[in-house]
Amino acid sequence: MLKMPPRIKVLEAAGSLADGRVEILDDKRARVVSSLGDKTYTVIVDAEKRLVYSDDNGTKYRGYVGYPIIAVLMKKGMLPYNERVANALKGIKWKTLNEKYKKYWLVEKIVKNIAQRKGVPSEEIDRYVETVLSQLKQLELRLAEPPGNI
């Protein structure tokens, strides 16, 4: 089973949807473009078998459900999507922030401040993240083989 992601990955996923960077290709395959536009992630979701795959670093190397998978699950309606929260996170360059500050809790604080300036309070963001993580945990997702094997 894949591990639960850091909280920030829920926000990163929502922001990717608000940015229009998530494309569903067919019933199992999708593509997610990174916040800087320099990478495209391949995502596979087999809902029936609870198998997922993504070639993002969090999924491949750290063994947790990466933000591209979360974003696709949101787009497919398998996880909640909060448009108000997502729009407050629109346009954030996640990779730049993550590399600059190197601590997810600090990046979360920064993006919450950005969202607050756009009218979305931290408490609303916290409730949303907790709801998504709770539902994600119930999905009990397992890592699939790379595309072609699913």
Q: Can you describe what's shown?
A:
The chain is α+β, with helices and mostly antiparallel strands and 150 residues long. It has one domain (8-140). Helices cover 48% and strands 14% of the residues. The protein contains seven helices and five strands, in the order H-E-E-E-E-H-H-H-H-H-H-E. The longest helix is centred in the last third of the chain and has 18 residues, at 122-139. The radius of gyration is 14 Å and the shape is globular. It starts with 7 loop residues before the first helix and ends in a 7-residue tail after the last strand.
List the helices and strands and how they pair.
Blueprint: H1 8-18, E1 22-24, E2 29-33, E3 40-46, E4 51-54, H2 57-62, H3 67-75, H4 83-88, H5 94-101, H6 104-117, H7 122-139, E5 142-143
Parallel strand pairs: 4-5
Antiparallel strand pairs: 1-2, 2-3, 3-4
Helix pairs in contact: 1-3
Descriptive tags:
alpha+beta, 150 residues
Spatial sequence of strands, sheet with the most strands: 1-2-3-4-5
Average predicted local confidence, pLDDT: 96
Provide the low-confidence segments as ranges.
none
Estimated helix fraction: 40-55%
The total count of strands amounts to 5
The ordered string of helix (H) and strand (E) elements is: HEEEEHHHHHHE
Biggest sheet statistics: 5 strands, mixed
Radius of gyration computed on alpha carbons: 14 Å
Tally the helices: what do you get? Answer: 7
Distance between the termini: 16 Å
Secondary structure class reads alpha+beta
